Amino acid sequence: MRNFQFYKEKFIEFLLFGCAFLSVIATIGIALTLIVEAIAFFKIVSLKEFFTSSEWTPMFSEAKYGIAPLIAGTFLTTIIALLVAIPFGTIIAVFLSEYANKKFREAIKPVLEVLTAIPTVVFGYFALLFITPKLQVLLPDLPGFNVLSAGLVMGVMIIPYVSSLSEDAMQSVPNSLREGAYALGATKLRTAFTVIFPAALSGITSSYILAISRAVGETMIVAIAAGMQPNLTLNPTEPAQTITAYIVQVSMGDLPHGTIGYQTIFVAGLVLFIFTFLFNILGVYLRRRFREVY
Amino acid sequence: MNNGKDNYALESKNVNFFYGSKQALENITMQIPEKKVTALIGPSGCGKSTYLRLFNRMNDLIAGTKVVGEVLVKNQDIYKNNVDLVELRQHVGMVFQKSNPFPKSIFDNVAYGPRAHGIKSKDQIAYIVERSLRQAALWEEVKDSLNKNATALSGGQQQRLCIARALAVEPDVLLMDEPASALDPIATQKIEELIMDLKQNYTIVIVTHSMQQAARVSDLTAFFYMGQLIEFGPTSKIFTNPSNTRTEDYITGKFG
Fold first, then answer.
1. Which of its termini does chain A have fewer beta carbons within 10 Å around, N or C?
2. Rounded to the nearest 5°, which phi and psi values hold at A226?
3. Residues with Cβ < 8 Å from B142, sequence gap 6 or more?
4. What CA–CA distance (Å, rounded) separates A112 from B32?
C-alpha cells in the first residue's frame, strides 16, 4: 500500500509539473515561430528600413516596410484608452474600497466585471456605430473610422481591470492604517489618497500595467473602429491602424506561405510580443519596488 | 477648564453600546478627570476597548454599531449630529495596540496630523515634528534618520513614533489601547515612563491587560466585567481594598 501511495504522489507531481511545463513550452514555441519568420523577413528588409521608414505598405507593388505607423496607431489608441481607464478605474476603486458599504460593494463589483464579459467585437461595433456618430456631432470633420472613438471605447472596456485589481489592493491594506489616519483627524478623502493609495501602490501599479498590456494587445475594437489604414500620426481624429489590426487584416487575406507579406504578420507579432513582454517585466519590477510590508 | 471639580475631560452617562444586536456596554456612567492617568482593566471581551473607542468615535468605523446615552468630551455630547469628527479627533488622540506607522518616512508620519489640520509652513511642521518626537522620547534615536521608512524601526520605537504622531496634533486627551502589549519589557518600561511624563499635560486613558502596569502608571482604575463597570476609583484603593468581590477576584488572579 505504501508503494501505491508513493507512486500516486509521484504521478500527481508529474502531472502538475507537466501542466506547468506545457505553458512554458507554448510560450517558447510561439516566440520561436515569431523569431524564425522574422529572421526570414529581415533577410529581405533591412532593420534600418523597418525602424526608420515612415510608411507601412507591404501589399503595394512598391512596398515599404516601416513599422512606425503601426506603432504610432497602437501607441495612440493605448494612450487614449488609458486616459479613460486609469482615472475612472482608480476613482471607482477608491470609492468602492473606502466609501461604499460592504453590501453595495458586493452588489456593484460583479456588475462592473460584466463589462469584461462583453465580446470585444461588440465593443468595436459600439464604437463604430454609436460612439463615432455621437462624436461627429461635436467634431463634424471626424471620419467614420478614427482612433479617438476606438480608444475611448477600449478605455471603458478596460475600466474593470483597473478598478477591480486596485480595489483588491486597497482592501488588503490593513485596517489599522485606516484607523491610524482617522484617529489623527484625517478625512476619508485624505486617508484614501495619502495613506491607503500609497500603501496599495504595488497592487495599483500592476493593475495599470495589466491595463496597458490589455490595451496594446486589443484587436477587434481597433480593427473595426479605427480603420485599416497605416497612418503615421498622433492625431486622434484620424483613422489609423494598430499592430494587431494589421495582423487581422493580413491574416484574413489569402497570402501564400513563405512570401514577404506572410512574414510581415510574424514580424508585427514579434514587435507586439516584445512590447507586452517588456510591460510584464516592468510590472513585476514595479510590484517589487513598491511592495509594502505592513 | 480648571475652574471647578465638576470639570471632567471625559464623561459618559448611562451609555449602552451595541454591535448589531449584541450589547457590549451596559449603562456605563463614569467621569474621567483631567490630567490624570485612568486605567481600564478587565478580562478579554469585557468592553474596555469598546468603551475607550467611544471617545474618539472610532467605533463608528464598524458597521452596525449603536450608541445609546451621552458621551461627553469637554462637556459636549460627541454623538450629536453637528459634531465635527476632524475637530474631535484633534482633541482626542489615540494610540493603538499594534503600532501602525504609515509606510512613509518617520518625518512624514509625525507630520501627517498637522498637515491634515491644514498646517503648511515647512518650518512650523519641522518644529512640530521635533517637539513631538522629543515628547515621545524618540528624538535622540531618530534625529539623523528622519527620512528613513518608519516601518524599519523596532516595535518599541514604532509605538513611540505612533505616540509622537498622536501628540503632533496637540490633543488634550490621549486614548491608549493596550499600547505596550506587543512590546518587550524594556520597551514597555519606556512607554510607561513616557506615560508618567505625559500626564503633566494630558488626560490619559489606558486600556491594559497587565494589572501591574495599571498599578504602576495609573491614578484611577476602572474595572469592567461583561460590559458593566463594576468598580471605579483611585488605583491604590482598587488594588488594596476593592469594594466588590469580583474586582478582588480579578485582581488577585482568581479569574481573567
1. N
2. -95, -10
3. B106, B133, B148, B153, B157, B161
4. 50
Range of the domain at B188: 5-101+172-251
pLDDT band of B2, cuts 50, 70, 90: very low
DSSP-derived secondary structure letter, B3: S
What's B150's DSSP letter?
G
How many other C-beta atoms are found inside a 10 Å radius of the C-beta of residue A16?
A: 10
Pairing mode, strands B228-234 and B220-225: antiparallel
Q: How far is B226 from chain A (nearest CA, A)?
A: 25
**Cα separation of A14 and B183, whole Å?**
47
Q: Which residue of A178, A184, A195, A204 is the best one to mutate when testing the B interface, meaning the one whose CB has the most B CBs within 10 A?
A: A184
- φ and ψ at A206, to 5 degrees? -65, -30
Tell me the residue type at A113.
E
Q: Does B100 touch chain A (CB under 8 A)?
A: yes
Q: Which residue has the cell 527620512?
A: B147
- Quick one: pLDDT band at residue B4, thresholds 50, 70, 90? very low
**C-alpha grid cell, residue A77:** 489608441
- State residue B22 phi and psi, 5-degree precision: -90, 125
Write the DSSP symbol of residue B119. -
For residues A16 and A134, membership in a common domain is answered with no
Plot region of B4 (φ>0 → left; ψ -120 to 50 → alpha; else → beta): left
Per-residue pLDDT averaged across A31-47, rounded? 92
- Of A189 and A253, which is predicted with more confidence? A189
Helix (H) or strand (E) holding A171: helix A147-171
B50, B100, B159: best to mutate for the A interface, most A CBs within 10 A:
B100
Residue A12 domain flag:
yes
Place of cell 493609495: A197
CB contact under 8 A, A292 and B86: no
For B24-33, what is each residue's pLDDT tens digit?
Answer: 999 999 999 9
Confirm if A182 and A191 have CB atoms less than 8 A apart.
yes
A119 with A168, same domain: the answer is yes
Using 50, 70 and 90 to split pLDDT, how confident is the model at A82?
Answer: very high
| Total domains, chain B | 1
Provide the β-strand partners of residue B11: B31, B72
Is the ipTM value over 0.85, yes or no? yes
Instruction: Give how far A207 is from chain B: nearest CA, Å.
Output: 20
C-alpha R_g of chain B: 18
Q: Per the domain annotation, does A294 fall within a domain?
A: no
Is the C-alpha dihedral spanning A228, A229, A230, A231 positive or negative? Answer: negative
Helix axes B155-167, B122-135, angle to 10 degrees: 130
Tell me if B71 sits within 8 A of B15, measured CB to CB.
yes
**Which of A58-62, A192-196, A242-246 is least confident?**
A58-62
CA distances from A154 to A32, A79, A204, A272 (A): 30, 10, 19, 17
- Domain carrying residue A61: 50-289
